[in-house]
Write a structure and sequence with these properties.
330 residues, alpha/beta, TIM Barrel, three-stranded antiparallel beta sheet, 12 helices, 16% strand
């Protein structure tokens, strides 16, 4: 199997983080047993984690047990640094991308890195995406927005055009979720409600704005978590496009006609959801993504696809391996 959606976090110490931003820069506090730890934001604990997040040898042993041949690793989104001054974020992105490549270096056939970029600055983001590609990253991960700039913002569209022209695959991950500090304080509701909505917002921003009319069709772009709410509500969006001119004013074709310009991972955890996802997107646009090594990820990686009786053996093989090999050129 090829798992396209997994995260890592380098062994950043507090001193390195303080040099960037003493209040917000993330760093890793490893517990005495060296098997568990905590991602910290300044002095504030952010998330408990375990050794697979920062130890590539440990990770590869787990991949062997899970039956994963190759895993694509990308930054834990708290590493993005989109809230910093652009030059500082660019320097940080370079450090993190070099750390990602070092993480993969001892197991080059098993681990492949995506880069991160200072997405708040178009010129610097394009430059770092291209530098990291030349250094060995097989694509770039971006958040679905930067502040109030969604994927239809001219700078974001120009970045995606750059990636299309430079043949840099793009993986879009939701982050900085809406409502996180208001009505969704408990029960991980920002991750359960707002995160799928953020992903759908990114996809619809590209479609309804007409951005996909301007971006070359050669762009390879994949959205995390099965595209969030996108597949389930696409019928509603098409209906609105047919009956409301304010919905279709910038979008010349029905929204559903653009779905197969996009890719998604299959982290949906339910056979019915997977069936709908493959019907909407096409089985060739769905790839295995586990969200490893976090608890919200698929614990038996690939089981949902392997146990899906509505998929042929060839379709299963495509989702588990072949589609990712084509998308990333592996």
């Amino acid at each position: 199997m090829i798992d396209i959606h997994s995260h890592f976090f380098p062994a950043i110490g507090q001193a390195q983080a303080r040099a960037v931003d003493a209040q917000r820069a993330p760093w890793l506090r490893v517990d005495a047993d060296a098997d568990t730890g905590q991602i910290m934001l300044g002095e504030r604990p952010f998330r408990p984690v375990y050794r697979a997040l920062w130890d590539p040898a440990f990770r590869v042993r787990e991949l062997d047990a899970l039956g994963i041949r190759t895993q694509v690793v990308c930054a834990t989104p708290v590493m993005f640094g989109y809230g910093w001054e652009a030059a500082r974020a660019a320097d940080w992105a370079r450090q993190m991308n070099d750390a990602a490549l070092a993480f993969c270096a001892a197991h080059p056939d098993r681990l492949k890195a995506l880069s991160q970029v200072p997405l708040q600055d178009l010129r610097l983001a394009c430059a770092e995406a291209s530098r990291a590609q030349k250094a060995g990253c097989i694509g770039v991960q971006i958040g679905n927005h930067v502040g109030d700039k969604d994927l239809d913002h001219p700078d974001m569209v120009d970045f995606l055009i750059h990636c299309a022209e430079a043949s840099i695959p793009v993986f879009v991950h939701p982050w900085d979720m809406m409502g996180g500090s208001g009505r969704m304080k408990q029960w991980m509701l920002p991750w359960l409600v707002a995160m799928p909505a953020e992903t759908q917002l990114g996809m619809l921003s590209l479609i309804l704005s007409g951005a996909l009319e301007r971006i070359p069709p050669s762009l390879r772009i994949c959205f995390a978590h099965g595209g969030g709410s996108f597949a389930y509500t696409l019928g509603r969006v098409d209906n609105a496009w047919k009956h409301r001119d304010i919905v279709r004013k910038d979008c010349p074709q029905p929204p559903s006609s653009y779905a197969r310009r996009l890719h998604v991972d299959c982290a949906v955890f339910d056979p019915g959801a997977l069936r709908l996802l493959t019907e909407v997107m096409g089985t060739d646009r769905v790839m295995l993504g586990s969200d490893y090594p976090f608890p919200l990820g698929e614990q038996r990686v690939g089981a949902l696809v392997r146990e899906a009786g509505f998929l042929s053996a060839g379709q299963q093989e495509g989702i588990l391996r072949g589609n990712a090999a084509a998308f990333f050129g592996l």
